Amino acid sequence: MRIHVLTILLILSACSSRDSHPGVAELIKASQEALMLRDYHEALSLADSALALDDRSADAHFMRGRIYFELQQWDNAEAAYLAVVNIERDYPGVRHNLGNIYYGKRQNRQALDQFLQAVNDSAAAMSWHALGTVYDVLSMPDSAVAAFRHAIVLDSLYAPAHSSLADWLERQGSYSESLGHTRIALSIRPSHLADQVRQGRLLVRLGRNEEAVPLLQDIVARFPRNAEPRYILGQALQQLGQSDHSSRILAKADSLRAIEQAAGHLANTANRQPTNFQAQVDYATALRRSGRTEEALKVYLIARALRPNNIDLQFHIANAKMALDRLKEAEQELLNILVADSSYVLAWLSLGEIYAKTNRPALAKEAWEKAIRTDADHPAVQRMIRQPPTSQQ
């Protein structure tokens, strides 16, 4: 599976104000804003502009490292952070971020060295948690659990440390203690899916099936295409003697696992080839089809950094935002497509759908009529003609 470093090791995001050129700080601020919107192409362009003004700007190199990290272009991110070290060896956060890069590249010994420097430079919970994660990967369990516990001592509300400690305790068979840390993590970030699933799994392992079933049923209802909670639910029902119901749920979980495995193969390709546009699109599309729309959108936006003017990709992004009910953003994506190509019939159809959902029936009708005039023989247009939207009937 593709390594999602940010879900394990958090990247610092503080820039300093050491640059003397008056335009550099403004460009970096604008780059940060673009990065927050996941407009990677614009963010990188602005960071490059800052470097054009001052190629010794540690802040600008650090910003480039952050952007390339988000794009999972590990080599480029590493080069940017090493440039920071060459300019300012003790730049805040650079060791932590280099550790993230080496972890992403599976160079775990190098990652360990960087995180050790990070915890020596600053007693931050996130760096201790990151250190523990690498110790765990390197099969150094005593060091790992000590680092996780130290992170919690530094910041008792740092949920990732509680989650990682809960994972470690579960693997050791300490289910009750693991459940305790899982519930602390959930009290801090209630919507975290992995913690929710772990809670259900631990309750089943502790024989508390009646308590686990409603929690797992809720997860399955909210994430119907996720195999693991459905599989655990099937186990709980089986232990409660509901064999027929359990069998149906387990069969569905098996089919979902096959879909997830296919997505996993695409994830590996995308991870190995971060600048391969089609690999990113294929992986994002697989995520979307498996119901992981938020993740799909992130990968589509990574692909857009590679080909910012690809209209088909823009349409994928618009559809993902529609599915996430981010209608205003989706509408702007579609309008941008139609500025570039007014004959893109699918954009007219989707735009009409957004107008209808946002109580603008006249604009919806106009958009759908435009789709018909543009290409009446298009299969999607024909489907709309055969089954007109409610606001058209």
Structural account:
This protein is mainly α and 393 residues long. 75% of the residues lie in helices and 0% in strands. It has 21 helices and no strands. The protein is flat. It starts with 21 loop residues before the first helix and ends in a 7-residue tail after the last helix.
Which regions are unreliable across 5 or more consecutive residues at pLDDT < 50? 1-14
Give the CATH class of the domain at 270-392. Answer: Mainly Alpha
Q: Tell me which CATH architecture of the domain at 270-392 applies here.
A: Alpha Horseshoe
| Structural class category | mainly alpha
What's the mean pLDDT score? Answer: 91
Distance between the termini: 47 Å
Can you count the helices? 21
SSE order in H/E notation? HHHHHHHHHHHHHHHHHHHHH
Give the CA-based shape: flat
Roughly how many Å is the radius of gyration? 24 Å
CATH homologous superfamily annotation of the domain at 270-392: Tetratricopeptide repeat domain
Overall number of strands: 0
What fold name goes in the CATH topology slot of the domain at 270-392? Serine Threonine Protein Phosphatase 5, Tetratricopeptide repeat
Please give the share of residues in helix.
Answer: over 70%
- Percent strand: under 5%
Main sheet characteristics: none
